[in-house]
Amino acid sequence: MARQWECVAIVGVGLIGASIGQALLRRGLAKRVVGIARRQTTLRAARRVEAVTNTTIDPLKGVAEADLVVVCTPPDTVVDLVRRTAEHAPEGTLFTDVASTKAKIAAALDGSLPRGCRFLGSHPLAGSEKTGPSYSDPNLFEGRVAVLTPTSHTNADDFDVLEAFWSSLGSVVIQMAPEEHDRALAETSHFPHLLAALLAGMLPEPYFRLTGTGFLDTTRVAAGDVEMWTQICMQNRRYLLEVCRKFGERLRHLAAALEKGDAPAVQQILTLGKKNRDALGS
Question: E strands along the chain, which residues?
Fold first, then answer.
């Protein structure tokens, strides 16, 4: 039987944070969910979608009785929020986050929190280009991968607790080292987002009305939060540069094939792409 938490504090009740709150409450996994945000409008929206039981704009007050704190804010804010709130959370409170980058955050927080508090990074591979609690979904994590990124300092019990937490929300939990996670996500998430942004950005306005479902599907994620994605790209720029160089080589190969009229080479590129995409499923 899944654990029922006395109090879970969620710092940042946007799409992901509110979806976590909804899932906890609707599945009876938490007696109280405290939503913490900078704006009262966000907190009112979180209440409307029944993602929280209590709200506050004061993060120090919000974590005061928390068994678990989940930080769902942009990556550049995670370290400072965890450090500040750990000073006011109950002794021994476990902290996690949902940021799309892990290495920099883990290095800053690994084994360094006061009063017996601990941090173990998480990344649920779920979400949308939409933002805000109005787009939350209690089933958002159902069947989706959630990555835990332990370090050499991680307590095994903490890993087990967070594995059970994400599993109770419907996720399939896997383990990766923080650097390994960032290298992989550069290829599977961060570079595809940049590519979508480049494609959307280079489209001349007179061609807007000529776009079909293919272009819209390919560039959908470009509508995501620009500030957050800038932070993701800068935190993971090391591995993003590796992917950019690899993509550049592939693009030069394709351009050379087109210039030569080399249909078999073009077909080979398209065939490999179709094979891999078909393997991913719908």
Answer: 5-11, 30-36, 54-56, 68-71, 94-97, 118-119, 121-124, 145-149, 172-175
